[in-house]
Amino acid sequence: MSGIGPSLHPRFNRRSVLQAGSIGLMSLGMNHISALREASASPVLPEIKAKNVIYLFLSGGLGQHESFDMKPEAPADVRGEFRPIPTSVPGIDICEHLPLLAQRAKHWSLVRSLTHKYNEHSEGHVIMLTGRNTLPPTFNASKPMPGDWPSIVSVAGSLLPQSNNLPPAVVLPQKLIHSSGRVIPGQFAGVMGPRHDPWFIEASPFHPKTKGAYPVYEFNHQKGPMHTAGLKYQAPNLALSEEMTQPRLMKRMDLLKNIENQRRRWDQEASTRSFDRYRQGVISLLTDKKVHEVFDVTNADEKTLERYGRHSFGWSCLMARRLVEYGVNLVQVNLGGNESWDTHGNMFPHLKNQLFPPTDQAVSALLDDLSESGLLDETLVVMAGEFGRTPKISHLPQHYDLPGRDHWGACQSILLAGGGITGGTVVGASDKHGAYPVSDPQTPESFAATIYNALGLPPTAAWHDDADRPHHIYHADPIPGLLV
């Protein structure tokens, strides 16, 4: 497959123009219609095992020393300021500032030996969001490229059957965008083609300066706590506009039928059926109150908001739980956009006061909800970033008042819960400084395979390009030692 070069302009046939016009007739913005982009049917239609995945992605990179692989016996410039606390599972200690997760250790397991060779943000994003340990030939750190590897969400979304009026795989609450405004690569379908791009539920606004779980835990890496006016968490508005009454909608539908009849005379290809499904999906979303309730997380009941937190991390985890309950199989939740976890400086106060409290609260509430509803057994929750942090603490006084750690792809810890894995276990180990794996090293490929396996995708699963060539999705076995 070849992408359109930067100096060329896309060409549109009559069918595409009519489809675009039909969308406009229903008074739906293109930002909403793009969310309804449907993948072409794959030759592989696996038998789904009624399992789901929630991928909590920590853009910026969580330090293993400050979270799940603490080194209390290491020198001070390695171990840092935080101390370990025992969890509810004897022998497993984690950071003192994650007390709620520590109480729920029976639900989760750790992998302390995930490793890759990349230390730059865009590279790490591509590696961990696509599950490929090599960069694509067309990789460009400044922007996504048509030749990029497809994201895990794109692959799963193209192979999993749609069970309701929502796509089988979504990303929330925002695209990952650098403070400079460039879109970070690794999030899209790449070589699969833009029609397989994920549905981004863009509920969280982009702001170049702010980080973290606004409005309660908003901060800036240089300035500390912030309170930016105008930040509002708002899911897609799928309701009919005031002027679009039900009778007017029906009239528009009659007009759409006429346009569709014209288009059928021009083109009898299979894409006609695809357009039918687009239209049905739009109308279903407009009229389905359950979908509106799934998205309306900021108006949840008081008890629920108290548990998850009235902040962007809590609302995002709550939406993920509702989406899985509704039938969406894979939900990627970006816990903080704009590389929120990139703690080069002021690391200890920002983790302690701004990043860990909302994460500990929201993820613990998510695990509780899934467990109480019976969904945890069939839902794998994974939490990872694009890399870990350097073994030694460093200080960049020209940028930060206090020290932090730099990027480190060679070792990071990831958390996994539910989905049939054995809770309260640890896979792999790092050396005494948390720098490199010393046992059971795991790769981004084994990480991705664990997600695909939890979704019920078989080892033979593949997506097919426009020339009908298969591209197999498994490049390693799932992480061993996790399944019951």
Automatic annotation (TrEMBL):
- Which residue stretches, if any, does this entry annotate as coiled coil? none
Q: Which Pfam families match?
A: DUF1501 (PF07394)
The signal peptide, as residue positions, is none
Name this protein carries in UniProt: DUF1501 domain-containing protein
